[in-house]
Amino acid sequence: MNGNFDKFNFFSVMFCSFKGNVYAYVIVSIIIICLIMKFIAATVDEFVAAGITYIKDACKMSDAFGAVTLIALANGAGDVITALVAGSSAGGVSYNIGSLYGAGFFVCSMVISLTILSMEPGHPLVVGAGTIYRDVFFYIFSTVVTIIFGAIGKIYWWSAVIFLVIYVLMVLVVVV
Fold first, then answer.
1. Alpha-carbon torsion angle 10, 11, 14, 20, nearest 10
2. For 77-131, what is each residue's pLDDT tens digit?
3. What is the DSSP string of 137-175?
4. Where are the alpha helices (DSSP H) in 44-123?
5. Domain ranges within the chain, ordered by starting residue
6. What is the pLDDT of residues 37-87, one digit of tens each?
């Protein structure tokens, strides 16, 4: 097998196992994706959520502080690991930026929309304007810093420190 497909050769499955039948391949792929999501959800419910709640209670954190730190860490851990792995490959930086911003836009659009739609009638979701302005400011500011680093063409140790400082500032703003 080629070095790019050492773990699982999707082309081999498509053309050898399913003999090019796209419909069977799509159906089996959807079933596999659903099973993977089910197992991930069970793992998160059983271990990650309980662990985050325990840490938040043990450190006597408020719900808001726990959400902006621990839940954000748990939510972003997979993205960070993917970014580290993909960053060393050709085109990996573009992939990283696209996936991180895509995830952010997904949360901004789908998750907020579904949250609003799931609200009980008579109990509206009230979000202060300052919260929206704060989040949009940090998102735009981080994007500008990312574009500047892209123009520089290299990532240095101080680049990571700048992003860490931006994150710490955001946490401080949320807490205050």
1. 170
2. 767 666 766 666 676 667 777 777 787 778 778 877 887 788 888 877 777 778 7
3. HHHHHHHHHHHHHHHH----HHHHHHHHHHHHHHHHHHH
4. 49-58, 63-66, 72-87, 92-106, 112-117
5. 1-60, 65-124, 127-176
6. 888 778 777 877 778 888 888 888 887 777 777 777 777 776 766 676 666
